[in-house]
Design a protein that fits this description.
Elements lengths: L6 E6 L4 H13 L2 E7 L5 H8 L4 E3 L8 H13 L5 E4 L8 H6 L4 E5 L11 H7 L4 E8 L9 E8 L6 H24 L13 E2 H9 L1
Parallel strand pairs: 1-2, 1-4, 2-3, 4-5, 7-8
Antiparallel strand pairs: 5-6, 6-7
Helix pairs in contact: 1-6, 5-6, 6-7
C-alpha cells in the first residue's frame, strides 16, 4: 500500500526558479505540490505551475485595505487544499502573526544568506561589502520575527574577488535549487520536525545524505 502523499503549497511573487526546482524534484523526493499561490498575476512562476499541471491562485494584496484581510483570503484558499506544509519561495510580502500562527510549524522560507548574517534584503551586496569569503542560503522555520526562525539547513558558496552581487546571486541560486527540495523532502519523511531540528543547522552534504539514506 502506497503512503499518503505529502501535499505542499508554494507561495511566490516572481519568476519561480526555486518553485521550478521543487516541481522538477517532487516525484523523486516524495512530496506533491497541490497549489501555487501568488500575489502577483504576472509572476512567471504561475506559468511554470500551469505547465506542470498544478493548480494556481492569484490573490493581489492591492485589492485589500489591510494585511490581515489579504492574509485571510490566502488562508481560505490554502485551507481548501489542506497542505501539510506551506513553502515560501520568493514570496515578497511580510507576513503578520495572523498568518504565521495559523500555520505554526508548517511554514518554511528560503533566505539568500547564511543566517543569522544578513537578514532582510540585498544580502549578496551586504556579503561582498562585509568582505565575506563564504556566503550562501538558509532554509528556516518561519516565525513572526523576520528571518529569525530556527534554521534547518544551509548551503554555502565561496565569494570570489571579482564577484558582483549579480554573479554571487547566480552562484547561490544553484545551491538553493538543491537545498530547498531536499529540506522539503526531509520534512515530508519526518526526518526533520520543529522539535528535532538539528543545531547547528545541517550543511547541504549532510542534508543530502540524510535524504538519500
Amino acid at each position: 500500500m502506497s503512503l499518503p502523499s505529502f501535499d505542499i503549497a508554494v507561495l511566490i511573487s516572481g519568476s519561480g526558479s526555486n518553485l521550478q526546482a521543487l516541481i522538477d524534484q517532487q516525484a523523486a523526493l516524495g512530496f506533491r505540490i497541490t497549489l501555487v499561490l501568488s500575489n502577483n498575476a504576472d509572476a512567471y512562476g504561475l506559468v511554470r505551475a500551469q505547465q506542470a499541471g498544478i493548480a494556481t491562485c492569484t490573490i493581489n494584496h492591492k485589492d485589500f485595505t489591510t494585511r490581515e484581510a489579504f492574509e485571510q483570503a490566502m488562508i481560505q484558499a490554502l485551507d481548501a487544499v489542506q497542505p501539510k506544509l506551506i513553502v515560501l519561495a520568493g514570496f515578497m510580502r511580510i507576513l503578520t502573526p495572523l498568518f504565521i500562527e495559523h500555520y505554526t510549524n508548517r511554514l518554511v522560507n528560503i533566505h539568500p544568506s547564511l543566517l543569522p548574517k544578513f537578514k532582510g534584503t540585498h544580502t549578496h551586496a551586504q556579503a561582498i561589502a562585509a568582505g565575506e569569503v563564504v556566503h550562501g542560503a538558509s532554509v528556516h522555520w518561519v516565525t513572526p520575527e523576520l528571518d529569525s526562525g530556527q534554521v534547518i539547513a544551509q548551503a554555502s558558496v565561496p565569494v570570489m574577488k571579482e564577484d558582483t552581487p549579480e554573479l554571487l546571486a547566480k552562484r547561490v541560486l544553484v545551491v538553493e535549487h538543491q537545498l530547498y527540495p531536499a529540506v522539503v523532502a526531509a520534512i515530508a519523511r519526518g526526518l526533520v520536525t520543529p522539535e528535532n531540528t538539528p543545531t547547528p543547522p545541517m550543511t547541504l552534504p549532510q542534508l543530502l545524505n540524510k535524504v538519500a539514506a
